[in-house]
DNA sequence: CGAGGAATTGAGTAGGTTCAAGGCCGGTGG
DNA sequence: CCACCGGCCTTGAACCTACTCAATTCCTCG
């Protein structure tokens, strides 16, 4: 788990990986491309041309409205893979951009096919990771639809901490959080002003510290209560036994590539 | 397209299907199970045991909050497949329940594998359909985060009409819409009272009729404007040429089942 | 040390909620 | 065929959460 890419650490939550799996996954992350902060990686309307693994930094999927408003859909952190199946679509329906200086490794279509064909365990883990992102999206819908401002803020903070934990980037309950209040607001469906006031509140109540791009949950318990946070949706508990069985069978009978 | 299951009609939007594909997909829908209105199909916490195709009726994914509030995540209509990869997860993080009397066909894990292994075109189409659902979720996030109440209502109505069109269940701009205002509200992150007032408004402005469980868009143009609706996210324009190439190659070199 | 983005604060406003009551419509039983 | 019942829709008035606009202060980085 240590010295490995965040991708490996993340996927290990689904299933123990073989040494070869780890080697292959680490190899994916070798050819990184660097992006400055606040740079678009792909734009709405673009033809998706490749999948990516994010190795360092932070990015987000977002959508701009005609009036200029922005909605951030998901935050992408190290270990996250995106647009794995993008090649099935003609055009992106949203953009992906960096929030800070970020490094990505592109994964070619051919490699994607190869992983799914010849490495069933990795293929399954990638699927799992896609399911996790879907679950995160659903959770965001719940938050935006049915939680008030403090619930939303608390929920997002919890989520970010738990996700960073899952890739080994959180010490205790503290993480690097390089987001501005405008960015938080754009993810939460709120205004920056209101996010500010909510943050004042949770700081005053001694639930968190947030300064110098560093977030610490002081009272994670109570924060989760406010958020209605339940980490089940992150599905970090490992694959169910039957799935392991299926995957092991396929692992022993690899399909050949084309 | 006619006489075929909604599933076939839907997937044909991605790529023309062969006669055999159509036969296989239609065969999936033979063994239907009937569910009464307002019945849970799977509940949060359950172990996912199978994938489903919805063949008749309407259902939704939803989540109940501890205080009793509900958020509807997605509406499922005929032709929609759900929990295709559910077996990779230990527990459902949300529930799925019918809204009206509904018929579903279960798809066993083995069948799912078989489709992906031996029928690449169908496999790709199923992937595409999963990508479409993700896009719909993202769109919901945008709506809840950055659109006002009338925008949300208009957007949902447009979406439902366009989706029903895509399975051949809309005449012109009219569809069956068996949802109560409470259900609409639970999907839109609003209260039923406010949904009611918004609906009054769009009716008064002669943009829609909605009565006797039947919705007609009178001025679809203007409704889309209010909604900021752009159907691109439904990805109904067919697969990109390169993807077709890849899929055709695999179709000629099928992998054997296990 | 200066500049510019980010955070903070205040006051007024608006969009949506809440609570409560009344009306409609479809279905059921006599 | 009519009367009744229950769920759904409709309406009103008061309230409140979050927004808007604008000014000020704080940091960070060059």
Tags for this model:
homodimer; 258 residues; Arc Repressor Mutant, subunit A; 4-stranded antiparallel β-sheet; globular; DNA-binding
- How would you describe the oligomerization state of the chains in this entry? homodimer
Number of strands of chain A: 11
Radius of gyration of chain A: 19 Å
Percentage of helical residues of chain A? Answer: 40-55%
Q: Report the principal-axis shape of chain A.
A: globular
H/E series of chain A: HHEEEEEEEEHHHEHHEEHH
- Unreliable segments of 5+ consecutive residues of chain A: none
Distance between the termini of chain A: 32 Å
Structural description of this entry:
2 copies of one chain form a homodimer. With 258 residues, chain A is α+β, with helices and mostly antiparallel strands. The first copy, chain A, has 2 domains: 1-145, Jelly Rolls, CATH 2.60.120.10; 147-227, Orthogonal Bundle (Arc Repressor Mutant, subunit A), CATH 1.10.10.10. The first copy, chain A, has helices at residues 6-12, 19-28, 109-118, 120-146, 149-165, 181-188, 192-204, 220-227, 241-252; strands at residues 32-35, 40-42, 51-56, 59-64, 70-76, 81-82, 95-98, 102-107, 174-176, 208-211, 214-217. In chain A, the strands form 3 sheets. Chain A has a 4-stranded antiparallel sheet. In chain A, strands 2-7-4-5 form a 4-stranded antiparallel sheet. In chain A, helix 3 packs across helix 4. The longest helix of chain A has 27 residues, at 120-146. The mean pLDDT of chain A is 95. The interface between A and B is large, with 58 and 58 residues. Chain A binds a DNA duplex (30 and 30 nucleotides) through helix 7.
């Amino acid at each position: 788990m240590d010295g490995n890419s965040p991708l490996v650490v993340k996927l290990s939550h689904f299933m123990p990986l073989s040494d070869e799996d780890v080697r292959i996954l680490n190899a994916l992350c070798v050819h990184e491309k660097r992006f400055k902060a606040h740079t678009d990686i792909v734009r709405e309307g673009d033809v998706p041309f490749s999948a990516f693994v994010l190795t360092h930094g932070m990015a987000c999927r977002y959508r701009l409205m005609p009036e200029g408003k922005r909605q951030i859909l998901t935050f992408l952190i190290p270990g996250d893979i995106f647009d794995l199946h993008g090649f099935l679509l003609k055009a992106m329906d949203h953009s992906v951009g960096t929030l800070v200086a970020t490094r990505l490794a592109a994964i070619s279509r051919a490699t994607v096919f190869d992983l799914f064909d010849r490495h069933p365990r990795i293929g399954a883990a990638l699927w799992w990771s896609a399911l996790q992102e879907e679950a995160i999206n659903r959770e965001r819908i719940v938050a935006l639809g049915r939680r008030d401002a403090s619930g939303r803020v608390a929920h997002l903070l919890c989520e970010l901490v738990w996700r960073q934990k899952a890739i080994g980037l959180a010490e205790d309950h503290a993480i690097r959080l390089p987001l501005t209040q405008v960015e938080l607001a754009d993810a939460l469906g709120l205004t920056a002003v209101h996010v500010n006031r909510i943050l004042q509140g949770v700081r005053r109540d001694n639930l968190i510290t947030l300064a110098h791009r560093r977030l610490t949950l002081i009272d994670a318990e109570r924060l989760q209560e406010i958020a209605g946070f339940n980490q089940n949706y992150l599905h970090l508990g490992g694959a169910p036994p039957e799935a392991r069985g299926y995957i092991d069978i396929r692992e022993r009978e690899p399909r050949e590539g084309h």
